[in-house]
Design a protein that fits this description.
about 300 residues, binds zinc ion, globular, single chain, alpha+beta, 10 helices, seven-stranded mixed β-sheet
């Protein structure tokens, strides 16, 4: 793969760019207005948190480049299984704020109950944030179900709160170290999951014909050497690219009937800076619907917990 560095923007420029895109989505698809309003609120919190993190020193990690390269060579994402200390006191307040935004944005009591569990100490925030950082869906699902909470909402809230840290860390590892010691391992990487955190991409952003996968969590951007299914590697006749809307050839689906997976792709003038890749995702929800109507799905997260 080729890792693609996506430059960040200062918060005010980021908000302006996001606002332009949200207005365009709401104009084209008025039915998405409530979803756009909710995303505006949630990503506002994520941007605030990113800004707060930027003002703090970069975490010191004992991840020697040789060790990272060896993991990548085995297709294991860098963060998997690493005891990386998270700045819990800084991230924790965002959990409650995301609950409030979701409660007001349509999730109602399901979100309020999560806030109560956090405030009351029934959810231990450090464990929750760590499980999310480690992409441990099973742990979060079990913990939520045990407390009578919605696993999907708990997953989302934790993901939003920890994503600015994951984003910062992946940039630190790949952009600072890569040019020298990680190049060989990076170029040998052919997997569809994120080389930093192991999540599947939310979609591919295509700029000037280059198909760049965008991690749904940490926003890593990477290009693969082959045009094939990102989930199973199939590049034969059962892997097709189609535009469900004839008028919008800039928005396509990659469909694999070997594994049943799909990936959305969208042409853009430039790659979205973190966390605006989430806007590309919401702009293309009709593609998710089209793919699912035809029986395609996104596979579950891969588990790297015990490697
Ligand atoms: Zn990632
Ligand atoms: Zn496939």
């Amino acid at each position: 793969m080729t890792y693609v560095a996506v430059s960040g923007l200062k918060a005010s420029d980021l908000r302006e760019m996001a606002e332009r895109r949200w207005r365009a989505v709401a104009e084209a698809r008025p039915d998405l207005s409530p979803a756009v309003d909710l995303q505006r609120h949630l990503l506002g919190l994520v941007v605030d948190l990113s800004t707060a993190l930027d003002g703090r020193p970069v975490p010191r990690l004992s991840l020697p480049p040789k060790y990272v390269a060896a993991k990548l060579a085995r297709a294991v994402p860098v963060f998997a299984g690493e005891p990386i200390p998270l700045p819990v006191p800084l991230l924790a307040p965002a959990l409650g704020q995301c609950c409030d935004a979701l409660a007001a944005g349509g999730a109602g009591d399901a979100a309020t109950h999560i806030r109560e569990a956090i405030d009351g100490g029934s959810i231990e925030v450090g464990s929750l944030l760590n499980a999310s950082f480690q992409r441990d869906q099973a742990a979060i699902r079990t913990g939520a179900t045990h407390r009578g909470l919605s696993p999907d909402l708990v997953w989302l809230i934790a993901e939003l709160a920890v994503s600015p840290f994951a984003h910062r860390l992946q940039r630190m590892i790949f952009e600072r170290v890569q040019p020298d010691q990680l190049r060989e391992a990076m170029s040998a990487w052919t997997a569809g999951h994120c080389p930093a955190c192991g999540s599947w991409p939310a979609l591919a952003e295509v700029v000037g014909g280059s198909r760049t996968l965008r991690c749904s969590f940490c926003a890593s951007a990477w290009e693969l050497p082959t045009y094939a299914c990102i989930y199973c590697g199939n590049g034969g006749e059962t892997f097709v690219t189609a535009a469900p809307d004839e008028e919008r050839k800039d928005r396509r689906l990659e469909l694999c009937s070997t594994c049943g997976g799909y990936l959305k792709t969208i042409d853009l003038p430039e790659l979205s800076p973190f966390p605006l890749q989430a806007i590309s995702d919401i702009e293309t929800t009709d593609l998710d619907v089209a793919a699912m109507e035809h029986g395609y799905a996104r596979p579950a997260l891969r588990s790297f917990a015990r490697r």
